[in-house]
């Protein structure tokens, strides 16, 4: 009989064993996050994890980011291959009427597991990485062309930029409240959110977050009328310069595998392809 347990101080040692068995290298490390938190936050974090137990043996776990809507972002998932069909049915029951989304390294093992669990492939993106070195210790452009995002002031401006840039990507338009929620997330980094400016007008935006223990550039976009003028490259290079100042050694970026122009730009800056990431949903 399958039993689903909420993570507790009594069974947390079993999560440590299961996490070591996980072969999905894109899983977020629960304990790296958990061990640095206060007692109250640790209690809340434990509520996000469920352990799967079958015939008194712990066979897997799922860690879900606290949802703010009907979407549940999976931060880590592992199930012993022998019990996938059993767990599959329980996952359907637990998250009925909820959308599950999970990013995993694209390989045969993970593809087989996600298919067996009943997930559907949403998209495939290229994971690119760059090692931060002394060449990033200075920025050769005009630093006055950039503005660090300021909390309680720039939420509307960021919404305008991102909604304008990504309006054709079937994204739900951002509102300032969405940004304020993000500012409270563990992955958010205050001083690595940047607008690129022209004559005191913001023409683009980008930021670096800590996702799955990897510093990652996200939400990079330039307003349409300003594209083709090198602003995208300037913004990426400036973000890397800021990362150098923060002693960050490796930075990643995800890009649609069919976005050849963006891939060419990132390679020009110094990124190289590391692997493919598949986004699955259920």
Automatic annotation (TrEMBL):
<keyword id="KW-0012">Acyltransferase</keyword>
<feature type="domain" description="N-acetyltransferase">
    <location>
        <begin position="144"/>
        <end position="282"/>
    </location>
</feature>
<protein>
    <submittedName>
        <fullName>GNAT family N-acetyltransferase</fullName>
    </submittedName>
</protein>
<dbReference type="Pfam" id="PF00583">
    <property type="entry name" value="Acetyltransf_1"/>
</dbReference>
<dbReference type="InterPro" id="IPR051556">
    <property type="entry name" value="N-term/lysine_N-AcTrnsfr"/>
</dbReference>
<dbReference type="InterPro" id="IPR016181">
    <property type="entry name" value="Acyl_CoA_acyltransferase"/>
</dbReference>
<keyword id="KW-0808">Transferase</keyword>
<dbReference type="InterPro" id="IPR000182">
    <property type="entry name" value="GNAT_dom"/>
</dbReference>
């Amino acid at each position: 009989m399958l039993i689903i347990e909420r993570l507790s101080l009594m069974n947390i040692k079993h999560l440590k064993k299961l996490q070591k068995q996980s072969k999905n290298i894109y899983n977020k490390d629960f304990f790296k996050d958990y061990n640095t938190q206060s007692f109250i936050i640790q209690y809340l974090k434990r509520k996000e994890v469920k352990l799967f137990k079958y015939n008194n043996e712990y066979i897997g776990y799922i860690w879900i980011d606290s949802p703010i809507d009907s979407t549940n972002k999976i931060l880590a998932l592992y199930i012993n291959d022998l019990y996938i069909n059993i767990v599959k049915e329980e996952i359907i029951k637990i998250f009925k009427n909820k959308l599950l989304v999970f990013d995993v390294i694209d390989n045969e093992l993970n593809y087989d597991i996600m298919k067996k669990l009943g997930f559907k492939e949403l998209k495939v993106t290229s994971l690119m990485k760059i090692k931060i070195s002394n060449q990033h210790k200075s920025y050769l452009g005009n630093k006055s062309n950039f503005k660090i995002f300021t909390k309680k002031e720039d939420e509307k401006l960021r919404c305008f930029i991102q909604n304008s840039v990504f309006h054709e990507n079937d994204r739900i338009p951002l509102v300032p409240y969405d940004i304020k929620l993000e500012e409270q997330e563990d992955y958010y980094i205050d001083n690595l959110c940047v607008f690129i400016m022209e004559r005191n007008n913001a023409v683009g935006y980008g930021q670096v977050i800590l996702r799955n223990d990897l510093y990652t550039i996200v939400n990079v976009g330039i307003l349409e009328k300003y594209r083709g003028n090198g602003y995208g490259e300037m913004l990426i290079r400036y973000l890397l310069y800021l990362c150098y100042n923060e002693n960050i050694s490796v930075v990643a970026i995800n890009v649609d595998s069919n976005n050849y122009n963006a891939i060419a730009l990132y390679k020009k800056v110094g990124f190289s392809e590391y692997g493919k990431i598949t986004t699955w949903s259920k």
